[in-house]
Amino acid sequence: MNTNDLFLLDILNIKKEDVESLQTVNIDGHVSINLTLKRRDVSCPICNSSHVLSKGFYSKKVLLPNSYLSTPHSVNLKVRRFTCPSCRHSFSDNPFLTPSNHSLSFDLIQKIIDLLKNSSLTFTDVARLLDVSVNTVIRVFDKYCHLPVYSLPEVLCMDEVYTKVSDFDSKYSCILYDFYKGSIIDVLPSRKKNYLHMYFQKKSKKELNQVKFVCIDMYKPYKQISQAYFKKVLICVDSFHVIKHLNEDLSKIRIRVMKSYPTDSIEYYLLKKFRFLLLDRTINLDNKGKYNKRLKRYINYRQLLELILSINEDLKVGYYLKEMYIHFNANSTYEEAKKNYQNVVDAFVAANIEEFVEFTNILFTWREEIINSFIHYKGRRINNSVAEGINSQVSKIIYNSKGIRNHKRRSKRIMFAINKDGFIR
After folding, report:
1. How far apart are CA 41 and CA 248, in angstroms?
2. Among 238, 328, 329, 336, which has the highest number of CB atoms less than 10 A from its own CB?
């Protein structure tokens, strides 16, 4: 045997001394291995008799992962057949190179499962890499990949992701996250209240009672479900979603003011070209000034922002209200938030800006949940940052696969790729 033959046997987990014959045939770059193993002592699986007679062979094709080998390889394994004179039962020797009634080697199955941990690879990508069919990859994933059962955590985050197509009557899947572990607890096919009721009704009281905080966006069914099933819980609204609504309302003010000016005006130019200065707080406003041909002078971002705010009083007030809330959100403790929250609400009411009516209503409606979001538990402020970070990977899986209609498969694929703690069985 040469080095390649020994390497092949190592992949198949076969000892050299167990081989009766090994023949290699190369046809147009495809290497076919004809392999016969030595006869082993076997017993009849029915009557357990050790006196069995040979009944010839049958050929079994074993597929190998081509990532290990420079050229495509397949193994034609000659499997011995036996017959038992005592009970007349016929059976085959099992060399344990593949699962029963399967042509894929154990190593190829493991390779398929390992590649599917990569959220950027689709079933088609894995099939192309390993030179097998897409249906083979899907069958292996469905049959051999299993996930542990996760219990509800102390801090539960609830969010949703758009799923394009689904075998459920819902465009959004609800995803449950463990805030501290940064892992997915479950992927539900629908975020509708009726389905959420059905899901949490199956949970034991002990498991429900171990949840201390629930962090949600401002989707009312999440709040209603949390109040119904988590009796000892504090509900928190994710601060990111609150500020997102605030920024959207400020953008509406900008658009309203911008449309009141001619498209060739300086005001329209400033509000269109430099709109990012109203929302992006990461920009260095005191940068070195650059020459602006339209304004015919050197000017930096802070001066541009001052020009923008001088265009309209509502825009100026709206911008400073936005900055006030962001400072309040970033720097307040829980006690300070309870004390100063009403002052924040009063400031928005007093401004009497039409576009801020929605945000003001949010401050009234979600008062308790917004204040709860300032609580620090085990050294961390509770929010949905873990969900927002993982959602991008989840959306990537769904987008790359052009939508996985089968919810059970989609759920398992998402959790396996994100959590990476599934197992083969």
Report:
1. 76
2. 238
CA neighbor of 277 nearest in space, from 286, 290, 264 = 286
Fill in the amino acid letter for 345.
V
pLDDT tens, residue by residue, 108-136: 888 888 898 888 888 889 988 888 888 98
CB 220 within 8 A of CB 241: no
CA–CA separation, 363 and 370 (whole Å):
8
Q: How far apart are CA 325 and CA 243, in angstroms?
A: 8
Q: Indicate the pairing of strand 73-83 with strand 53-63.
A: antiparallel
Residue from 155, 160, 161 nearest 214 by CA: 155
Q: Which amino acid belongs to residue 246? A: L
Taken as a whole, the chain contains a residue count of 425
Q: Give yes or no for a contact between 393 and 418, defined as CB atoms under 8 angstroms apart.
A: yes
Cα dihedral 280→220→386→239 (10° resolution): 40
- Pairing mode, if any, of strands 19-27 and 234-237? unpaired
User: What is the full DSSP assignment across 322-373?
Assistant: HHHHHHHHHH--HHHHHHHHHHHHHHHHHH--GGGHHHHHHHHHTHHHHHHT
For residue range 326-355, list pLDDT tens digits in order: 999 999 999 999 999 999 999 999 999 999
Amino acid 330 reads A
pTM (whole model) above 0.85 = no
